Every structure is written in structure tokens, then in C-alpha cells.
Amino acid sequence: MLNQSKLYTMQVRYFFTALAFCIAGCGGNSKQSTITIDTLADGTIVQRETEEQPGKTEDQSNGFWERLVMVELKDNNGAIAAIRPFPSSWKIGNPVTTGPHGISIKSFPLRFFMDNYNPALQQSYVQSGQQLRSMPGVEQLIQEDLVPWAQNQGMQLVDFYEIPEISRMDKWYSESLYAAMPARSDVAAFGINWKKNDGTPYFQILHLTVKTSNTMQNWSYYVDGLEAEADHMESAKKQLIFGLANTRYNLEPIMAYNKAEAQRCNQSWAAFNQRMAQNQAAFEAQQRAFVNKSEAINDAIMSGWRSRNAASDRNQENTIDGIYERTNVQNTETGQQYKVAAGANQYWMNNNGEYISTKLNDYNPNLDQNMNEQRWQQLKEIKKN
User: Fold this and answer.
1) CA distance 258 to 289
2) pTM over 0.85
3) What pLDDT digit, counting tens, does each position of 59-106 carry?
4) What are the domain boundaries of the chain?
5) Using CA atoms, how far apart are residues 194 and 233, in angstroms rounded to an integer?
6) What angle do CA 199, 204, 206 make, to 5 degrees?
7) Which of 159, 255, 265, 380 has the fewest C-beta atoms under 10 angstroms from its C-beta?
8) 113 conformational bin, left if phi > 0, alpha if psi -120 to 50, beta if neither
């Protein structure tokens, strides 16, 4: 799950509070469990869990304290890509992290797939041995990919559910990466409970990303698996979810990646003039970007971003667009707006949502025979205030 890490020694101060409700197994009674994460005077992060019995108004500590440390995650170049709060008793490893009470967290390899909506390209992919697969839906994906594996391990599916706090973090990171062409992004994380033949529990977190455009779909998933003694499984799940949901990102690797991808995509777009060549170039560009993003998810979950919702602010959007060297354009007929690579004098888009850019002021693809008589609509660049 994580590269070999060292403890984060800088005095970073965070305060997080998570509220969890547990249902007792007997008599239908319920109790409330509160986990508080705060920072001590020496900068150490500590987790405290208290329980509230039904009918009592005061919290009673169950004696469980867990010291947290900010673990550094590094990319392949040795740079700090992210920090994440995990219990100090956990030994961070790649691909297995271990802890007391039988805790073992294993990261399974990333798997990615694609589907192309162009019949001619579909046939060429099949003939070349590339398998096309569309996203089947979460429940069917679990049945097709995870259930057979679990059955071989002597486990049965209990239930699954979305984990919104991890979904939000995964979605922010995915949408921070450069996209070669406009596409709808669907990102979510799901908790999956399994039961082994001996009755002990097993828990997985499924991280799913789906990118869908007018011409193709790229999607991927990876899984984190958690084992622990039955009496400590619930606390281990809370600690794992809390750590993943509160990752802090470093923007510099994201900015460097996006700039390189934007420059590469600009060069590749200019190299192709025919429609079939454009489709192939778009596939190769997005596939390379997709592979890079997939590796970045495992190796470069960034730290330092303190306001995940700041992207909706216009000033923040202008700043990010400047860093990524993007500009906004508009279809004057439909009013639809798009983000494209900056630096061209003209932008044109066809009915498939594909665009070309050129520095020529007098170029019109509708008059270019190489465009196979497609209809191209000129896009108007929106100047920023």
C-alpha cells in the first residue's frame, strides 16, 4: 500500500474529530463511540476513544489510547508525495503494513481497463489482442472480480457500502490531474466485509476511478485488504479509514506532472491531421496519461492541500489554470465551455467532442479534405478578468 516511509518529524498540527456509532450484538441496545484525534504539546498526534452507555450522559473512557504519527509517502524519485496519519504501532511497508493484534494491511496491484465506442477501432483492438471491457457497475464488478478470488481464499461476501470520506479524497486527487480530453469523472471508494470459513472477519477498501468521454471509457481499481483479530477489527478499520481520508497532499509533483502532460498532448495533437489518426492519437495520449495517473495514485498521493473545496472558487480556478497552462473556450452555438491547452490562436471541435488547436489564423478544418468532411465548430477563447 505504501512505499517504505520514515516518521514525519516536523511539528504539523492537526485537529480532527470523527464520530462513530456501534450497534451492540445483544438485546438490541446501542452504544456511542467517539474517536478524538488531537495534538499534544510536543506535537505528537494522539487518538482517544470513549464509549457512552445507554441512559448515561457522561462519556466513559474505555482506556484505549492510540498514538498517531504523520507517515511520509515518497514517490519513485524519493520526494515526499504525501503524509498520512497512522498509529505509531503500525510498521509501514510495501505492499504490506503490519501492526499489533494481528493487523495486516495489503495493497493489491492496480488493474485498469478501457472500452472504445468507435466500431472500427474496437475491431482493430480485438485483432491486436487488446481486450475491451466497460465498467459493469460496482456490484457486478465485485461479483466478477473479487468474489471468485475470495472463494479461493475460503471467504464469503457479507456486504459492501460506499465510504464517502475516502471517496471525496480520491475524487479530489483524480480531478487534480491533467486530462487529455474532456471526460466525465466518477470516483468512489467502497468498504467490503467478508467472512472467513472459521468466522473471522476480513475487510477490503475498493478504490474505483471511471473516466468516460464521447469516444471511450478508461477505468481502474485497486484494493486494500485488512486482517485483524476479531476483537480489534473495528478499531483497525476506523484507523485505516481515518488515515486514508485525511491524507495531506503536496502540490508540486501534481503541477510538474500536469505541465509535462499538457506539453506532450499539445505536440501529439499537432502531429495528426486525419480523423482516424486523431482518434488513435487521442487513445494513446489518454492511455499514457491514464497509466501515469494510476502509478501516481499508488506512489504520489500528495500533501499540503488544506482546502479541498477551494477548486470551486473562481480565483483558485484562475490560479490553477495558469499553473497548468490551460485556457477556457466556449462553443458559441451551444454555450458549452471546455478547458483546453493554452497557446493556440484557434480552437475547433467536432461532433465527437474532439478538438484541434492551431496557431494559424486562417486555418479552417471544414475546408480541409483530410478532415473527411467532418463538421468543425470554432471555439471562442474566454478571456479571464
Assistant:
1) 10
2) no
3) 333 444 578 999 988 888 788 888 999 999 999 988 899 999 999 999
4) 16-252, 253-382
5) 12
6) 150
7) 159
8) beta
